Amino acid sequence: MNVILSIAKYTNNHMKLNWSNYDLSDSFDEYISSKKSVRRHIKKIGNFFESLSSKEMEELDLATKAAIKSLGINFRVYSEGESSERTWPLDFIPRIIRKKEWDLVSKGLKQRTKALNLFIEDCYNEQKFFKHSTMNKDLILKSKYFFSFCKNIKLPNSSWSHICGSDLIKDIDGNFNVLEDNLRIPSGVSYMLENRYVMKRVFPDLFSHYGVSRIDEYPLRLYETLVESSFKKIKKPEIVLLTPGIYNSAYYEHSYLAQQMGIDLVEGRDLIVKKGFVYKKTIEGLEKIDVIYRRVDDEFLDPEVGNPDSVIGVKGLIKCWKKQNVSIVNAPGCGIADDKAVYNYVPEMINFFLKEDPVLPNIKTYLMSNKKERDYVFENIRKMVIKPVAEAGGYGIVIGKTLTNKTKEDVIKKVLSNTKNYVAQPLINLSTTPTYDKDIVAPRHLDLRPFILSGKNVYVTIGGLTRVALKKGSTVVNSSQGGGSKDTWIVDV
Amino acid sequence: MLSRSAKHLYWLARYIERCENIARMVDVNLELILDFPIDHSLNWKSLIDTLDINYIYEKKYKKYNEENVINFLFEGKTNYSSMRNCLDMAKFNIENVRDDLPKTASIALNHLYDHLNKESISRIHKRKILPHVTETVNLTQEFFSSINDNLSRGYEFEFIRLGRFLERVDMISRIIDCLCITKSEKQTYDFSSMEWISLLSILSAQDAFRKISKGEVDRGEVINFLLKNDSFPRSLTRCLTILRLCLESLPNNENIILKIRSLRLRFDVSTFDKFDDEKLHNFLDKCQKDLTSIDNLVEQNYF
């Protein structure tokens, strides 16, 4: 048994949290150093948690859960064709990042997103990047997210992925690396905001002592980004949020953001195209729309150009966009850069488009279509993670060290049958943070998803959504697969 | 405002108001029984009659006893008007318009939902049923008062009010009608004033009624009060006035207002205290038909 901090319910007053008994693993822990001392910027909150009785810990956990339930914060999970609503899992022990460290990360994210947006516009226009890079053109031109109707289109501020969610992880040395960039329709920001809302109610005393940076300006910044995406310079454009509907896994977020920004939350059936313009159906008749913040996948956006059976899209929408009568956020076709093989070239993009050196490191990525790299991966498969290039939500990922001889053969066969579809990365030992797990406080692995808004300026959220794997040793943080979350505190200490 | 949002708000309000009225009926019946513990003529069937769902009820149960009726009204899966089903529909509708409503409204609905789903009504101890039902009524009121206190007066508010008061007119006219047609011939006690007092208490109207009518409760006065009082918010004419006010704040309203005016006129020219049971029943029956056509017009004009 590695569980040291087991707090027995019936001996409340004796089994208090004591960091010197904390069950450190071989990963970088963000609270406790390898010498078992509480890190300097964590001291205050570390002491606070040590001062609590196990009864108080349990009460905090219950209070957190009760607040989430009463607010109705939930998400939807699909498995085997069934869908069910689940209460959002929030761990009450916050993740803490120093402001100085965050400022640098923030700078790196801005740089990255700028380069990616310029890259996307370049792919649909001059295609200068290919001429200077070793990147195989087909990676883009044959991507399922490359749409020929986007060719020769230039967008205001060259913003294609107006809202980007990049996944960051801390390695064994405690440095942030970019794991992937979600450029299409990243979700999670509402949970970042709600986590803070709940935490403020559970820990009012801590916030006043700690000097935690505010995060609540996001909806305002998002609104500004949407305004700036409009083709016509109107002061108050008519903006709507297009959702696939209440059964979508991120519906809670769609509704939350629409409410925060005071815009209408619409479904495809609420919109109609007439003479090149998009309208919403209101009780007073039709009303023209200037900007659509869509949370519907490219494929389903317009049955005329995508999936002809789509009932969640709007017929004729893409034509209106091409005529610049309505702006679509994120722009159709921006998915070409949301690909784990393209990811490998982001540092090169930063050099090429911005003439700068990348601030944030990438994780070494092996393209399985390259024989030399592939052979290396197969030889070292136990140290690798193999990923399909265009999947989201953590699906289809193979972790090398979990393979048996039999499953290993299966994976190799699968990769060989379509090498272009896979990349591999060395298995990174994700950092950990203390997490409350049924009476014990133990290290659990986590990642971080900040959100980057690209309009006239680029804005990065103060911190982001921290996702945590709730099972011991697990690195799967996706909420659809049993992951939890934490409030992320950027503190000036 | 989106047509679809208007529809969801309208139905959200209707379902919660329906839930409240059903809870009120059960509440009063439970209390009435305490006053006549050994009288078996006091029946639970009238509740099912009021909602006109006997054919569904009889598919499931043979006897109209307290346990069956309460179970059916609270949780009956096949009963589309059961509180559980109403709440599920309310949840579905609020999901779609959560962004149009104050946060406190969602929280209030969550409380109501948890209250009714925490435990099956059949497992609640007899001693605790009455407070359980009363609490249900209180929680529906918590929802509406959060709307009243926190939602700006605008289309959203008007559609909620429209749904709520149309549902209320519908339910109240059913409840009164039911008393007229199901009065038992075999009454073994003096029910004449009891039944009218219970009617007043279903509608939380005793106090308001007492203020204007003292002494022995008189059938004619109660009926006049519940149908024609223009200040009490559960009297039918008052509800019609509120409906007219709602519609006046909405666009495209002419034909519906006309319909409500003509219905209101029929109330104004009727002297209900002189109506016998049959005449009253016919009047309310006609009133129900008008409500259906008003509901259809709302659907046509806005959704």
State the main characteristics:
heterodimer, A: 493 residues, alpha+beta, five-stranded mixed beta sheet, four-stranded antiparallel beta sheet, 23% strand, disordered N terminus, B: 303 residues, mainly alpha
Low-pLDDT parts of chain A are: 1-14
Main beta-sheet annotation of chain A: 5 strands, mixed
User: How many alpha or pi helices of chain A?
Assistant: 14
Q: Order of SSEs of chain B, N→C?
A: HHHHHHHHHHHHHH
Instruction: Write down the overall mean pLDDT of chain B.
Output: 89
Strand order of the largest sheet of chain A: 3-22-21-18-17
Annotation field: number of helices of chain B: 14
Written account of the structure:
The complex is a heterodimer of chains A (493) and B (303). Chain A is built from 14 helices and 22 strands. Chain A has helices spanning 43-51, 54-71, 99-124, 128-132, 138-141, 189-202, 204-210, 218-229, 251-261, 298-301, 317-322, 346-354, 371-379, 405-417; strands spanning 74-79, 82-87, 90-98, 163-170, 176-182, 239-242, 264-266, 271-274, 277-282, 285-288, 291-294, 327-329, 366-367, 384-388, 398-399, 422-426, 432-437, 440-449, 451-454, 458-460, 465-469, 483-491. In chain A, helix 3 (99-124) packs across helix 12 (346-354). Chain B contains 14 helices and no strands. Chains A and B meet through helix 2, helix 9, strand 7 and strand 9 of A and helix 1, helix 5 and helix 6 of B.
